[in-house]
Amino acid sequence: MSIGLLTLLTIIDIAALVGVLALFLILISNRLNNINANLADSSSTVTGIVAHVEPIIPGVGQINRTLGVIAGALPLLYGLTEKIVAQPGRRAN
Hints:
By secondary structure, this protein is mostly helical. It has 2 domains: about 1-55; about 60-85. The chain is about 85% helix and about 0% strand. It has helices at about 5-55, 60-85.
């Protein structure tokens, strides 16, 4: 092979490499733009959720206390219902 042919093949290889790298950069750029758009949508959704939650925040303590009382009473209620169902002469539906 002559030096001219080797030089031409080297130039073609370098051009192919640059072309493939450019293609990957374009694909990565498109993917990042899609991610950016999705993050913007998520950000606006979170902003909307925060706006809906703000009126509830002052009452969260009371809600948690009430739910704690209810959760504490559930085992007692469950035990009472088992005793009622287990009484002789009663049928469970």
